[in-house]
Structure formats: C-alpha cells, structure tokens
C-alpha cells in the first residue's frame, strides 16, 4: 500500500458523524424504478446531514428479488439495507431475518404511515420495513384517444368496457396499441397482474384446504379474456413486457390504456419524459361484470435492515431520512409535488399542495379499495391481493407465470398452461406439507 493509500485509509477510519459516531458506508440494494433513481440523485443531502456515504446496487425487479432473497437466506451480508415489499417483510420478520424498526425516532412519526402500509410491513405488530412509497394499481388512459373513439371512461369500469375501448383505440398503422399490460414472467411482474385479473373474475389461487384452483372455470375465463384482449389490442411481444417496458411505451404515445402501479402516474404526466403528459386520465382498476372485486393490488417498496449487519444504527438513519416527511418536502422542492413518493403517509394526503395533484385522490382510493384479507369472492386460507403470503409462493408463482407467459408468446394454449399450473402448484404444496 502506498503512503497516499495508507493516509486515505486512516482518514476514512477516523471519519465521524455530527453525533460523534463513526461514519459508515452503507450498501443498499434497490429496484430500478423511477422513484428509487430519484432518491439516489438526492443522497448527498443524507451524507451532508449524517456523514454517512451510500453505495447503490440497482437491479431490475426480478433480479433484485432473487439477489436479496438469496443473500438474506444464506446470511451473506452483502447489503446493509434492502428494498423489499409486503410479501417478503412479514415472512422474513417472522424468521428473525430483519431488524425491528419499532425504535425509530419520535420525529420520524411512524404513526403517520398509512395503516394499510404499516400492517403489510409488520409481523405480530412489529414494523420490519418502512415504506418508501406505497401503491395500488389503476387505469391510466389517453383522454384524446378515448374521445376520438367516442367513448367516456367510467370512474369504475368493467373489463368488458376496457376491451371494447382498447379495440376502438387501437391504430396499428400509427403504432398505437389500445392497451398495454404486463406479460413478463416473474411472480411480481406478470404474475402479479394476472393474479389480480383472476381476482376480478372470481378466481383464487387456493381453496380453503390449499388445493390449487387453476382447474376451475374462473381461471380459464380470466386467462382467456386476457389473452384474447391482448391479441386484439396489445403490443407485439407483450409476453416480455413488465412495468418499465410498458411505461416507456405509454410515455412514447404507443398505448391507449395502461393498467399498472399507481406510482406510474407521476411519470406519465411528467412533460420532461412523457409525450402525452397533458392527455392522461385515471380510473379505478376494472372488475368483470357481476364480480365484486377489482383488479387492483396493494404493495409498498420498502427499506429494511437485514439482521446481522454491522451498521444497524447508520442503516436506520438512512431509512428515517429516505421515508420521512422531510424527504417528501425535499423531493417537492426539487421536482414538484407531483413527483413525491406517494402512498406511504397519511399527512401527504392531508396536504393541500398534494391534494391539487390530479392523480392523488385516485391513488388513495385505489389503495383503500384493496383488501388483502378478502382478495377474491370465494373464501381463501391466505392473506395477499397479488400474492399469497406463504414462503413457498415466490417459487411456485414464478413457475406459473412462466407457463402463462408461454401462452402470451404463442408457445402453448390456455388449457395447457392451466393444467401445468394446477399440477406444479399442487405438487409443491404437497411437498411443503400443506396437503
């Protein structure tokens, strides 16, 4: 080691924060969504206030899930903070894999977290992850194309109306698809979307005895409807499209409608990024005629501290900074109120500045409409809207989503995919001791 390197190392070891504690370098795993990218650009504010530095590992959604799950299960210690969601948090908290966040400062005001978000990120009443943003899903649509089609979007439409509108808005010669939806394999990508679509047709993953339900008529109706609508009005190659791919298509003016995460509303209405920013309307996610369940989910991308980290205190400081009321104000100051992280805090929806944002109320309405304890019409033994809150679900649902994506790609039929989903799900549940 050279003298210069040794001097740098010695200096780094003696850096202290304003409170006198040792300054740390935090390694954070996160998803490559727009709000997370924005957070990275504002991290200097955290460093200036605390002395801690941050190293980001930014990954595509499916890759992030795999990396953090593997690392925490193996006690790999690669990360000081992980970006996880409502599926992982209660399970990992119960396993003792996460540090409790019940001791965050009084100034942080954990009681301000929306009840739906706090409940979904807790186990036995203990908070194990803090929501960076919360979301449901809703319809984002081109008001100009809807008007051109001679239609008016209901506040709470049916799938049958959506299919009709999608066909009317499709213009292949102009490269406009009537509807853009997720088909990408992955339990949290296309798997999440087809699960809530199934809910809205009355389908369910399991009956009360943990028997798979893919052999039931509701699943065949839901999957057939989805495939037929996308063949009529969806983009070519939708089998590989997830959140980011559809966001790009919508921003480029190539989608009449997009049903996806409510958090996308700020991106599609941002004139710096979206060519249709001034032509976007919003509506609640659809249900099938006669079925009292909408195709919307409940989710939070949240920050958690893996048990065993040597930097627990600094990690909690970062979480307080990134999910605080002050951070919301920081984003509003730099990017405008439409771009603050939504869906996490009650006070945000009481703020007149945010109430003026055109999609704010629809986002809140969508979040409040989701019921993880009653996700579909028939009774179920599980909790979760777009997922089933058991450890085995991620692996099973990833395989099921792969079978469905093969249908979207024209590689097998709906009946073949459902038969495979039924068999592999029952096999996995029997092996895990549920049946």
Strand order of the largest sheet: 2-1-3-11-6
Helix content class: 40-55%
Distance between the termini: 60 Å
CATH superfamily of the largest domain: Periplasmic binding protein-like II
Number of continuous helical runs: 19
Quickly give the CATH architecture of the largest domain.
3-Layer(aba) Sandwich
Show unreliable segments: 1-14
Task: Estimate the global geometry from the Cα principal axes.
Answer: globular
Task: Domain count, please report it.
Answer: 2
Order of helices and strands: HEHHEHEHHEEEEHHEHHHEHEEHHHHHHH
CATH topology of the largest domain: D-Maltodextrin-Binding Protein, domain 2
Radius of gyration: 22 Å
Percentage beta strand: 5-15%
Number of strands: 11
Overall pLDDT: 94
Structural overview:
With 435 residues, the chain is of the alpha/beta class. It has two domains: 3-135 and 299-355, D-Maltodextrin-Binding Protein, domain 2 (3-Layer(aba) Sandwich); 137-296 and 382-431, Periplasmic binding protein-like II (D-Maltodextrin-Binding Protein, domain 2). The chain is 43% helix and 13% strand. It contains 19 helices and eleven strands. The strands form three sheets. A five-stranded mixed sheet has the order 2-1-3-11-6. Strands 8-9-7-10 form a four-stranded mixed sheet, with helices on both faces. Strands 4-5 form a two-stranded antiparallel sheet. Strand 4 (122-123) and strand 5 form a beta hairpin. The protein is globular, with a radius of gyration of 22 Å.
